Amino acid sequence: ISARERERARRRAPGNLDAWELVQHGLSYFQRFNMVDRVKAIDLFKDAIKLDPEFAAAHAHLADAYWIQLLYTDREDLPQTIASARAAAERAVSLDPHDPVAHLALGRMHVVTGEIDSAFDEIRNAIALNPNHAQGHHLLGWAYHFGAGQAEAAIPHYDVALRLSIRDPLRWTSLMMKGSALSFLRRHEEAISHCRQACQYPNGGFLPHMHLAAALGEAGNREKSAAVIGKIKELEPAFSIDFVRSRFVGRPHPAFLDNLLGSLRKAGAPE
């Protein structure tokens, strides 16, 4: 139903859309991980807020769009983008404390700013409000993995997200991050398999390929990882170890970041 609503909104002229339809239109761009579509999503969410300043979902999705934009933000602009994302998430929760998407947006920003206990509280609040929210379970796994450095604790939550999101266009995120966690645990064949599945989704940009290269590098398969590095450079010409380090803004757990960068070096990523 959600996919149909997004498509219906996308086909209508933006000037004829109400706030809810603008959000649906924005979500159709939000699910594509590139700078051009990300800016379009942000603009549409802002337009929805102009029409209805108290529409909590518009603020929540704006916060999420800002968070993804961090991947494409210059270093000097990062503090402002983080502040904008957090303000939008806090506004969403204040407007509708019963909206799970609002709590997830705020939980994600707590992870980015290193407030991991608050992150777990917000994400669990979201899951309590909607136990079938696939992205809620994914984000709980991500908080354990990215924010707390606990890859093994993350895997069951990625599994729940995958079970709930068979047709979710963002399913690749759970496949990718489970692959990353499996690679951390040296379960190489499983890690590579999950990352390869994530790469089959056309809307993931360079990210799933990056984690596939890391998994191949950690498994010692330099020849195949070199080919994947070439694909990453096609999708993101600026890709390098320094690029990855600068784009993982906020406070990833050192265990997560050190493992990822070390695996990418083994894969042959340029410094």
Summarize the structure.
With 271 residues, the chain is mostly helical.
Please provide a written account of the structure.
With 271 residues, the chain is mainly alpha-helical. It has helices at 2-10, 19-30, 35-51, 56-69, 78-95, 100-112, 116-129, 134-147, 151-164, 171-184, 188-199, 207-218, 222-235, 241-247, 254-267.
Give the topology, please.
Elements: H1 2-10, H2 19-30, H3 35-51, H4 56-69, H5 78-95, H6 100-112, H7 116-129, H8 134-147, H9 151-164, H10 171-184, H11 188-199, H12 207-218, H13 222-235, H14 241-247, H15 254-267
Q: How much of the residues is beta strand, in percent?
A: under 5%
Shape verdict = globular
Helical coverage, percent range: over 70%
> Helix- and strand-based class?
mainly alpha
Which keywords apply here?
15 helices, 271 residues, 73% helix, mainly alpha
